Amino acid sequence: MTRNHLLAGAMTLLSLLGTSAATAEPLVIYSPQGDERAVWIAERADAAGHDVTILTSGGGELFDRILAERANPQADVVLGLIDAAMATLKAEGLFQPYVPNWAEGLPEVYRDDTDRMVYKFWQTPVVIAYNSDMLAEEDAPTSWLELVEDRYAGKYVIGPTIWQTTKTYLIGMLLRFADESGEISDEGWDFMQSLYDNAIVVDSADAKTAAFVNKEAVIDLNWFGGVGRLADDVGYRAVMVDTEGGTPFIAEGIAIMEGTDQLDDAKAFVDWFGSAEFMSAYAARFGQVPVHPDAIAAAPDTVKRNATLLRPQPIDWDVVAPRVDGWIQRIELDIK
């Protein structure tokens, strides 16, 4: 089966966004960016001379798809999957080395100095926020571990584990109970059981929103931008907590697929995409915080402030990634 035939089938499952020239095969990019962001990226890529097709879906679905296509990869570039997913795909041998021209000056935590395959371009804190119209500051949790206390029973929502955000904050909490070898203690699993017992557990975004609309939930466990979006949709003022021990950060990466037949075009796109010029423009449009100091310096003042608003929880994703599936499986089978 040809690559184009496979891509045509994929479009029934994923959204096709971007441009394609009649005279050349476009660069195929897999990304979990939503429709608005993917269209915006594709339009600017086209204006910069990059002929791209962006295929979008949820992060978990894209991750599974890339693994399923390992024998006949359909993407040339993967961008926007979070740390654990990118680390796993790298370990599976699906990426190839390339050091982008914007790697210099990138903080070490966002560089792949060992394998030179995955480089991060922006970051998103996964935070605890609360409805300040219904919960006073002195009554809000100050750490992730406080969520299991009786006073927060039924006041926060846990979404599906396929959501990148849910998976990230669950990992962040479990790691507080890990030993030097990365094993989670019995105390950690007991904590996770209590966390779920205390929560409103939902299986969809609509169900989560309904819990806030009905004024059952007042504490939001969410990615940075999602906090404001939910608050605007429901109609309350959200306050984010700079938690004790830090908060897990999602850093999204970009990598070139092993086996691409458009290596030069892929390298050129990666260089353009992660450049300070494009990253600062993206920050101005969507409020996303880039990770490169040059991009932050060129970003709007609100983005600069957000870059230092919350303390990150230190996580070595190359070490964590091989354990994530087992941890999530245990949660699915024994706890939920």
Description:
The protein is an alpha+beta fold. It contains 13 helices and twelve strands. It has helices at residues 3-10, 35-47, 59-68, 83-91, 164-174, 186-197, 205-213, 224-234, 263-273, 276-286, 293-298, 301-306, 317-335, and strands at residues 15-18, 27-31, 52-56, 77-79, 95-96, 119-131, 157-158, 200-201, 219-223, 238-241, 249-257, 289-290. Strands 1, 2, 3, 4, 5, 6, 9, 10, 11 and 12 form a ten-stranded mixed sheet that branches. It has a two-stranded parallel ribbon with strand order 7-8. Strand 2, helix 2 and strand 3 (52-56) form a beta-alpha-beta unit. The relative contact order is 0.17. Mean pLDDT is 90; it is low at 1-23.
Features:
13 helices, 336 residues, D-Maltodextrin-Binding Protein, domain 2, alpha+beta, two-stranded parallel sheet, single chain, 2 domains
